[in-house]
Amino acid sequence: MVHNNRSTRLSEKPDISDDLSSGLRVTWIGLVVNVLLVVFKLWAGTISRSQALVADAVHSLSDIFSDVVVLLGLKWARKDEDDTHPYGHARIETISSMVVGLLLVLVGVGIAYKATMSIYNHDVSRPGPIAIFAAATSILLKEAMFWYTRLVGMRLKSPLLIANAWHHRSDALSSVAVLLGVTAVYVNPNWHLADAYAALVVTFFIVKVGLNLTWLAFKELADTAPDEAIVARLTEDVRAVHGVRQVHDLRARHSGTQIFVELHIVVDPELTVREGHDIAREVKARLLAKFTEVTRVIIHVDPELQEEI
Q1: Which of 19, 65, 191, 259 could be joined to 184 by an S-S link, Cβ 3.0–4.6 Å?
Q2: Residue 216 has what pLDDT?
Q3: In this structure, how many other beta carbons lie within 10 angstroms of the beta carbon of residue 270?
Q4: What is the structure's pLDDT at 89?
Q5: Residue 288: pLDDT above 60?
Q6: 17-47 vs 51-77: helix axis angle to the nearest 10?
Q7: Does 304 have pLDDT greater than 60?
Q8: CA-wise closest residue to 148 among 163, 135, 136, 165
Q9: What is the pLDDT of residue 83?
Q10: Would you give the DSSP letter of residue 226?
Q11: What are the tens digits of pLDDT across the range 171-222?
């Protein structure tokens, strides 16, 4: 039996100006904080002769680079569709998120290497009270930036902002190791290796977060489908539309913070093209209304097959 398939491509572009403004604002604030911290920790580490604090300042330099990556990612990822990017630029945010994750891994490995060499060489340092104050200040500011950036990232469902939030947290953890180390050495000079051992412990968490962010970005670039629960909910909502008799070949994939959906619906073969199109439009409207992440829907309308005797 031969039957005709009627398809309609439906899409909608979300309003993202407010999201972009919020994301840029929190990132610019983080960039200013990072620049101030780098200058302060370099100055404090130099005058107090704290190798750990100077190394922590170098770590903060990576945060400045991370903020620049985030700013570029947010700006480009929100650009409108064009002839060369018909699906938009959301994947730029995913790539930027992967860069941040890889940067975390590299920074963690670098800290581990320096800590290991300090232990091996039995490096001795005599940091002063200013180093303790600088490390404590860094912890407070970077932890505040972590929660602020994470809050905005969760609200906007931006993996790039969430990745940058964890970069703030990694710097705070690094400063915790510095605080423990310089305090221990200040209290008892015989504990001059305490900061190096603490740094090794913190490195594990930094690398773990970086690998997790990199893996999530890689899965998205590989067009990994959303969770099965989301796909099941999508299917259930399509079936609830009046006139839809069956749903099949439903596919979904992430693109940045968005989800693209393609599916086939089966309708009464006696319907007109207009009636089938109206059902498809209702399916589209339902999915866009109930799933904020869904921004593009492609629907193929198939007539129900009837066996001929």
Answers
A1: 191
A2: 78
A3: 9
A4: 61
A5: yes
A6: 170
A7: yes
A8: 165
A9: 62
A10: -
A11: 888 888 888 888 888 888 777 777 677 777 777 777 887 888 788 778 777 6
Copy the structure tokens of residue 100: 């941040």
Tell me the sheet residues that pair with 251: 262
> 3-state secondary structure string, 77-135?
HCCCCCCCCCCCCCHHHHHHHHHHHHHHHHHHHHHHHHHHHHHHHCCCCCCCHHHHHHH
Q: Which residue has the tokens 């609830």?
A: 240
Tell me how far apart the alpha carbons of residues 46 and 172 are, in angstroms, rounded to a whole number.
20
- Report the amino acid identity of residue 265: I
Q: Alpha-carbon distance 267 to 114, whole Å?
A: 66
Which residue segments constitute the domains of the chain, with CATH numbers given? Answer: 17-221 (1.20.1510.10), 225-303 (3.30.70.1350)
Average pLDDT over residues 89-112: 77
Q: How many residues are present in the chain?
A: 309
Cα angle 87-215-262, degrees, rounded to a multiple of 5? 30
Cβ atoms of 139 and 172 within 8 Å: the answer is yes
pTM of the model: 0.59
The whole-angstrom separation of Cα 195 and Cα 252 is: 48
